[in-house]
Amino acid sequence: MTQDRQPRLTRRRVLAAAAPALVAPLATPAIAQGALKGTRLTILAGQWYVPETNTMLDQLAADLGRDSGMDIKIERFAGDELMTKTAAVIGTGRGADMAVGVEFDTYVYAAKLNDVTDLADEIGRTYGGWMDVAKATSMVGGRWKSLPIGQAPAAWNWRTDMFRAAGYEKFPDTFADLLTAAKALHAKGTPIGMTLGHASGDGRSTNYPVLWAFGGKEFEADGKTVAINSPATLAAVEWYKEIYQYFIPGTTAWLDPDNNQAFLAGKCSATVNVNTIYLASRTAAATDPSRKMLVENMDHALWPSGPAGRFANYNINVWLPFASSPNKAGQREFLKAWFSRGFLPKWTKTGQSYFIPQLAGFDREDVWPDDPKLKIFRELNKLNRLAGYAGPPTPAAAEAVNKYVLVDMFAKACTGQLSPRDSVAWAEKEYQQIARRRSRT
Amino acid sequence: MAHTAAPSAPGHPPRVVRRSLATDLIDHEQALGYLLVAPVVILLLALVAYPFAVAIGYALSDRTLADPGVFVGLENFELLWENQIYRQTLRNTFIFTAGSVALRLLLGVGLALLLNESFRFRRLVRAAILLPWIVPTVLGTMAWLWMFNPNFSVLNYILVHSGLMEQGLNWLTDPNLALFSVLLVNAWRGVPFMAITVLAGLQAIPQDLYDASSIDGAGKLQRFRYVTLPLVMPVLLTALVLSIIWTFSDFGIVYGLTKGGPMNATHVLATLSYQTGLASGNIGEGAAVALTMLPVLLVLIIWQLRRIRRSTVA
After folding, report:
1. pTM, whole model, 2 decimals?
2. B74 in contact with chain A, both atoms CB, cutoff 8 A
3. Assigned fold of A155-313+384-439
4. Is the ipTM beyond the 0.85 threshold?
5. Which of A88, A260, B45, B291 has a C-alpha 20 to 30 A away from that of A310?
6. A407 within 8 A of A203, measured Cβ to Cβ
7. pLDDT in tens, A222-279
8. Cβ of B166 under 8 Å from any chain A Cβ?
9. How far does A294 lie from chain B, in Å, by closest CA?
10. CATH top-level class for A11-153+315-368?
11. A20 SS3 class
12. Rounded CA separation B85/A254 (Å)
């Protein structure tokens, strides 16, 4: 059971507690000696893809525990399990003090999270300010209710050799060009593929940018008025329906691992994914010639530009400080340590742009990978837009994502189950029902 | 502490015997009955009745994960009924259950009849048959996921390379075939249970009955129709009802294979309930989706309990 002890107030303790405020904030994780001794801090986390980033979290917890006397425990869960466990803690108010959450969690759980506005302001000042997407993710009603860990940019992973064989030296820069390239690649027997199945990560990062590139949006800025049924959405659906006929078969059944597998097997010439295909292949290249060939013949690219611009949607991780925790001081000390200058830039560099903190000043810091094939992630990092646009990431937007409404809208039109117009009308009805339900609460 | 007068030797006053409460209880059958049943009743109340009552309460409220919500009556059910995904899910669930249970029944009974025969390595085969039932759902589902994979399907490889088809099937891509695929995996997992249960029933049938019917001139088919089937029926019905209940509320196979896709073609009530209640945080509506299963399961359970009671009385 987590607990706070009330330490006896002494001059030494007062000085120790005031030290972080007197010295440069976040310069080093100065610990209020003794104040946290004997307390416990349980943190729910998943597994980040780059193993060293997990090890660094463990080490940070161990160091902080040693310096503060706090007993810090990291409990790790696989993707959906972490979500379920977090929901259980939110529901019961027991079981953990903090968790790694995703982009919608702050809005969904806002009432059950501690206000960390002062910490967010301090971190913002240290690192040149928060990016807008970070504010949109973690601020509810003008207050910070979580602190963003980072975002995992999804790029177009493409086979340079296959594109070259089809007459393309560069990855297409517009949606019209992508369609033309898809035709050519299909004719060469090396089709592209975009996830149209119920894939919790790729389904979103692949399909929302298409909607936005054509000027479509799910909600108006109030986050309540449904705006999906528009000529812009229809144009996006029609483009999708056309390009779908040149896809590798099976994309409507693709779950998160399937596009990786197809790309790794050389059956698919381009797909939308984070940099894990490349990172895994680069590691395996030393012993596996086929992976070595892949690493030499693949690259990453930005999303093409559509009539309304160039957009992207990435998975985001945030620190959720549970209001039910009796160890609020421990939460804050951990967050200070995480965002300290001695830790965060190193953690980011180690992650090789798999997860990038949404801090504006990081663009100028030495946190970017040296590998030339990962350079593009610095640009990708600036593109993220949240689902629910033009509104905030409300629970209604989260529900639409979790129910794959947008993905299914495209899939229904692509497979001919509904006409493009009817699939947009179907999606509008679903969005309206979600908005109606959510307006009750 | 109770006192009773015990008989004593002539000329002596009656001996007073001290009786403990425990002794009293043992003597009172009715009280003892209640006492012995109490732990089970308490467990059932705490682990079944209470969560069930809470679930009903949730279904009648607009509770979310972060907000206790207010009572909304049947509004959640009304909203669900208006929702196309829910109606599709309901239809999927019935098809999924009916199809899977029919396959389990057909294959399970067939397998039990085969396993009841004498052949070499019979014990080994019987044990091996149980594998799909024993192996964790996730592991079995992962294997099938590979077999259905649009790009690497071993099933398609066999179909194409044996010349049966020119190109492979879209196991999880085509909406209708996807529902059949998840149903098939569910049946694959459930067949061993059906087979072993029916096999146990078959082995309880006395050989004399078969011998007698053979003497009377009954053929194989007649022996099955008039001896095997009636005697194995109680076991078969129990296995059938359990199969329906488990299939109707199945989650792992569908979630592991398709997460309800493509285009909600394989969503069943359990996966939709999870998606609505936990993933989207809409606890009230998620509970309402789950409670939709109640009438069907309730009818089955009551029927089964009555049958068990009748057979016990008989």
Report:
1. 0.84
2. no
3. D-Maltodextrin-Binding Protein; domain 2 (3.40.190)
4. no
5. A260
6. yes
7. 999 999 999 999 999 999 999 999 999 999 999 998 999 999 999 999 999 999 999 9
8. no
9. 18
10. alpha beta
11. helix
12. 20
